[in-house]
Design goal:
Order of helices and strands: EHHEEEEEEH
Number of helices: 3
Shape: globular
Helix content: 25-40%
Length: 162
């Protein structure tokens, strides 16, 4: 199953790219799931070949998922892939395109739940909407921080971009 989201953010591509890699911003955007980084890169900006292990409350139970940044082309693209977790597969591409007054951020999330036919049904009728809501919340948080200058307070964000 593939989820595609496009978000327009009135800030530079560099700021949006780095906010998308910010572990600290991710924690803020997922506070409602009590998400925390428990291993790997747990603060600041995650980079190529680094991993982060997330622990969060989803669907009435605690879940743990480790993702790795498997590709990165600053400030245009990066990709993270699940190394371990509840999904059969989980790959998230992050694309950034400069426009006249900001950045177009494109998310392509490809995922598959386990359990064959039942998993395909769950993905189509439930998981796609669930993950879409999480991504929309995350993207709204990135947009808010990028457009208001709040990004300057996050660990790892370069002050020279100010």
């Amino acid at each position: 199953m593939i989820l595609h989201l496009t978000t327009v953010i009135h800030a530079s591509k560099e700021i949006v790219f780095d906010l998308s890699r910010s572990i600290d911003l991710h924690k803020i955007s997922t506070a409602h799931t009590s998400e925390e980084a428990i291993a790997g890169t747990t603060s600041g900006l995650i980079a190529l070949n680094e991993t982060v292990t997330w622990k969060a409350r989803h669907l009435f139970r605690n879940r743990i998922m480790t993702v790795k940044i498997t590709a990165c082309r600053p400030y245009d693209f990066f990709e993270d892939e699940m190394q371990s977790g509840d999904f059969k597969s989980f790959r998230h591409e992050h694309h950034f395109k400069e426009m006249e007054n900001g950045t177009i951020m494109i998310d392509l999330l490809e995922f598959e739940s386990p359990y064959a036919t039942i998993g395909k049904w769950v993905d189509r009728y439930f998981m796609k909407r669930y993950l879409e809501k999480l991504l929309i919340k995350r993207n709204e948080t990135i947009k808010q921080f990028a457009e208001t200058g709040q990004w300057k307070k996050l660990p790892g964000m370069l002050p020279l971009l100010a």
